[in-house]
Amino acid sequence: MMTRWRQLVALTLCIALPACGGGGGGDSATGGTATGSQTGQGCSLVERQNWAFATLREWYLFPETLPAALDPAPYATVSDYIDALTATARGERRDRFFTYLTSIAQENAFDATGASAGFGFRLSTDAVAARAYVVEAFEGAAALNAGIDRGDEILAIGADANSLRNVSDIIAAEGTTGVTNAFGPTTAGTTRALKLSGPAGVRTVTVTKTDYSLTPVSPRYGATIIDDGGRPVAYLNLRTFITSAEPQLRAAFDSFRAAGVTDFIVDLRYNGGGLISTAELMTDLLGRDRFASQVADTTTYRPEKASLNTVHRFTAQPQSVAPARIAFIATGATASASELVINAFVPYLGANLALVGANSYGKPVGQVAIDRAACDDRLRVIAFAVRNGAGMGDYFDGLAATVGTTCGAGDDFTHPLGDAREASVRQALDFIEGKSCAPIATGQTNQSARAGGTPELLAPARPTAAQREVPGLF
Predict the structure, then answer these.
(1) What is the pLDDT of residue 445?
(2) Could you give the CA distance from residue 447 to residue 331 in angstroms, rounded to a whole number?
(3) Rg value, the chain, Cα
(4) pLDDT averaged over consecutive 10-residue blocks of the chain (474 residues)?
(5) Cβ atoms of residues 272 and 2 within 8 Å
(6) What is the DSSP letter of 63?
(7) Between β-strands 325-330 and 263-267, what pairing exists: parallel, antiparallel or unpaired?
(8) Cβ-Cβ contacts under 8 Å for 466 (sequence gap 6 or more)
(9) CB atoms near residue 244 (< 10 Å)
(10) Which of 95, 265, 337, 408 has the fewest CB atoms within 10 Å distance of its CB?
(11) How far apart are CA 384 and CA 4, in angstroms?
(12) CB 443 within 8 Å of CB 359
């Protein structure tokens, strides 16, 4: 998400307001928190629903799409009511569930340190082939500690080893939602047995959800220099744009700068977004040869909120580098703040920039976060549009039609992230070497090196704050 409090979050983007109370996340352009219109101060369902409608009327970027009135009585939850209020904009693909209700406490905890509870892996499912794969496992969490990592296929899930259900049967009966349900509640202490097939062979592992903090830049493969036949290429993989990523990004770019690397692969394939402030730091770290007068991104509100419009110009950092070429790796999970970073360089690098892998998600808008603290309610409202220095935005169908050079490639689960043999990394290296490639088809938002259907990161119908910012997280 994009959050403009100089912060960003998965599939949303947030923005900072003069009256912000701090906190706030977002992936596709959002900012901080603010005190919005209050319709009653209680926490009854109808009071919360009325507050949500009043807040939308004050902040929503597409006010003409809101109903003049809508009885909240038929809607069992605040989220259901918000879905109904924003149905027109969603039908027009301008708000694809970017406006939603979340928990203040959960979101603040994740944005600050990456704190959440779970097994600590990302999961991709193939609804056609009825299969489920681990595409990434996080350091310090239960899954990796149990030997579960990228390349493992989950064959069966159960409360224990005696109650395993085949994933193929689960998907056949319940669709991929059944896989989400099989993992149980998102609370620490939930235990599941998983039958796995992967590099370590076929085995059954029992793993328990625990509290852990996500490391945005993996210490295993997050920042490395690939020796591609004598050509040094910097590889950076950022999992999410949160505050704790900033010192890690600075350290990574400091090492790249010290090594004198000029060719870069920035892997955002699973990055759903996050804080605009962190995204803008990344643009600055990649922009040493940009002039201070050059615009990286702008945010624009509806006319009556125009005093909040901002312009971010490139600001050199002590660790900034000057790329000659950048290959950005993307998939359909690449959204919001991730897209902001990619789009920022389109006017400046031209043919020396490529989008590699698959088309991005398409979220050129961001949110403000309006809090109702007594109820632990944070309403993330699409409130502004994001554009680059050339005024390019409106990429609701992804960046493939915006970026001049694109190279299609699969997400190859059989190789580690950052490995020169992995399909998307290999294609990125080929682009840097000047080799030709087949372009990404416009509208194609995901690809895989596997047979069957198109694997996609598994997303619950009502994701937690952490799952919004880290697509596929369980």
Answers:
(1) 53
(2) 7
(3) 21
(4) 39 36 34 43 95 98 98 97 97 93 89 86 96 98 98 98 98 96 94 97 98 96 97 98 96 98 98 95 97 97 97 98 98 96 97 97 95 96 97 96 96 97 98 97 55 76 83 94
(5) no
(6) G
(7) parallel
(8) 106, 110, 114, 115, 116, 118, 214, 473
(9) 19
(10) 408
(11) 9
(12) yes
CA 199 to chain centre: 28
Contact present, 188 and 127 (Cβ < 8 Å) = no
Structure tokens that stand for 175 in this block:
């669709």
Two tokens, residue 123 = 């999961």
Residues 6 or more apart whose CB falls under 8 angstroms from that of 294 comprise 287, 313, 314, 348, 389
Q: Quick one: DSSP state of residue 374? A: G
Report how far residue 424's alpha carbon sits from residue 411's, in angstroms, rounded to the nearest whole number: 6
CA distance 297 to 471: 24
Residue with tokens 């950005």: 328
Angle between helices 245-259 and 276-285 (to 10 degrees): 10
Q: Which two tokens stand for residue 8?
A: 């960003």
Q: Which residue has the tokens 């031209």?
A: 350
Q: Which residues of 142-157 are buried (b: 16+ CB within 10 A; e: fewer)?
A: bbbebebbbbbbbbbb
The CA angle 374-14-180, to the nearest 5 degrees, is 75
What H or E segment, with its residue span, contains residue 45?
Answer: helix 45-59
Q: And the tokens for 145? A: 């500690």
Q: How far apart are CA 363 and CA 400, in angstroms?
A: 13
Q: What are phi and psi for residue 456, nearest 5 degrees?
A: -135, 145
pLDDT of res. 117: 87
CB atoms within 10 A of CB 205: 18
DSSP 126-158: ETTTTEEEEEEE-TTSHHHHTT--TT-EEEEEE
- Three-state SS at 377: strand
